[in-house]
């Protein structure tokens, strides 16, 4: 096999034909990589909550589209301008990139590169697609799509990983877990001895809990409507659990204050995507200094923020991929994975074959489900 291939590959992929439609396994064509792109043979993928939203048109209502944004694969061929990767490299896709020279990359304040931006047009950087079906062009989920046997991606949006990392772990690190871990580590920069509240104990929330524990937080309050998340949260370092079973006579922020001598927490993380919880998350933090980090995505386009609690010196901010810079920071997290300092095995609860992907969305509704691995 030559290093660069000009051949079109026909393979299986999961296609969503329209807003809210069930997913279909289809035979699609994947073009050869152009200039700075690589074609990747996927080893496995995983399901992120955002994938459900993608079927409803997140981040843009563009269809038909090939689904999936988490995964890991092996570089099958490379474009002519590629210099940082070679055939056989194991890589994970990341929807954010790091050029290391732009204003944002040289700043400690953000991971959102200006040269290689997070894109919402669901196409390659040159505005075209590398995937098609029976001659019709297909959109990607972001600038790539992972629920496919092969995909093309710009080399700046992949990170090479050590082959000893388990494919499932690598896949989980490509979005959900890293987003949570990074939010505590890079975005909030949680300090030793601080207090934290985490709204929603899915993969992102559990990543926050672990990130906060490793940063030395002493009070880590998990909040979830599913009582089974209590046990899971403790594995990651949660110290207290608030179960939203609907019977509580106190509001969530009152419950958080009761656990923090009436003061509230230093940091709250909204990972559930449930819009009304954003105000609870803000009001759960300390007056004057509290910070709320928004990560959950939901169906809402906007939400109402209570004026007074925010006016009282609190901060609300959002972050993408937990503020992790893919070249400077992600290798540190990958090393923690290799050293078994983080809990990734505990995330994996279910597995499906690519063709059974609709089953994965059903599994996500089960109370014991955290992460579904997609075998390709
Ligand atoms: Zn995701
Ligand atoms: Zn940059």
Automatic annotation (TrEMBL):
SUPFAM superfamilies the record matches: GroES-like, NAD(P)-binding Rossmann-fold domains
Keywords: Metal-binding, NAD, Oxidoreductase, Zinc
Keyword set includes Oxidoreductase: yes
Cofactor: Zn(2+)
Domain of life of the source: Eukaryota
EC number: 1.1.1.1
Signal peptide (UniProt feature, chain positions): none
A single GO molecular function term of this UniProt record: zinc ion binding
Domain Alcohol dehydrogenase-like C-terminal intervals: 204-331
Description of how the protein assembles with itself and partners: Homodimer.
GO cellular component, one term: cytosol
Domain Alcohol dehydrogenase-like N-terminal stretches: 35-162
GO BP term, pick one: formaldehyde catabolic process
InterPro entries associated with the record: ADH-like_C (IPR013149), ADH-like_N (IPR013154), ADH_Zn_CS (IPR002328), GroES-like_sf (IPR011032), NAD(P)-bd_dom_sf (IPR036291)
Gene: LOC110415735
Protein name: alcohol dehydrogenase
Family: Belongs to the zinc-containing alcohol dehydrogenase family. Class-III subfamily.
Catalytically driven reaction(s): a primary alcohol + NAD(+) = an aldehyde + NADH + H(+); a secondary alcohol + NAD(+) = a ketone + NADH + H(+)
